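Q: Sequence in, structure out?
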Amino acid sequence: MTLLNTFDLTYPIVQAPMAGATTPELAATVSNFGGLGSLGSGTTAPDVLDKQIDTIKSLTDRPFMINLMVLSEHDSSTLDSEIPAWLSQYYKQQNIEIELPARPALRFADQLQVLYDNPVPVASFTFGIISAEQVQRLQSLGTRVIGTANHPLEAKAWADISADAVCVQGVEAGGHRGGWLPQSANDPMGLLTLISQTRACTDIPLIAAGGIMTGQAIKAIQTAGAELAQIGTAFLTTDKCGINDIYKQALLDASQDKRSSETRLTRLFSGKQARGLLNDYLRNFGQFESAHELPPYPQLNAMTKDLRVHAKKNLDAEHQSLWAGQGVALARQESTTELLKRLVKDL
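A: Exactly. Output:
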């Protein structure tokens, strides 16, 4: 059975679950069109997530996906690192009050419980791997389970616990990398290499992510061995996306040669590798990029939150996390439906 059949899709398109950027309306629009719409919910409180699931269910009767970030109780509750001196100095210079939370991230167990209590058609997971028992419980509720991998060994780990599919995320992809093994961060693989090496070690169905912006690119990853394309950056500049106007304009400027379309893999915003547009924050503090000098995720993410909030309030693109993939130069200002029609025209 193909993934199109498994997920009951018309088109081989998965809208990437970008936390903080996706909305129930975006997910429903993609699902109603015949793709797999999704909601990035790793930073969403359980009660809000429950309501958002209900909203999507009210907007579509088609399959959709909820994505969660897998964090241990220790990682999500521990805030024991010092704020880096360079970041503390920036806060002082800008007169920004720092207010650290009691814990750096939400409890994964509480979020997962929402999916048990209010089942969804598809659940995907990033930043780690869940247990075989958790996979089985979700599947018993009618939920298909998708893992995320940046390395073939991570894909195989998901196959070994009977996930329904794995999204292999190449180095070209925007936003946070979903892997958790040291190998995935030490030697990031391009998407085509990742697909071929993953195909060599497991036959689990694959979804491909990373730099996919056109129908031709969808066909290319299908030829390489993936069944579906997960697309993120192209959706960021569409009408149903939830990012702020300054972030959206920066992406459009990058596609129109009004600013550099250069992207970087960086840990400077969150402590975990993520790809975004090069801006002043990454230029000015790039010397502190090496992992041993930075607090880990999600601790650094909590420490930079006030910086990012301040930048948004002040319409400052240079100190926001402008997550984007290497295909950002092809971004367009269009409706979500226009993008979908353009993608499927070339399939």
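The radius of gyration is 19 Å.
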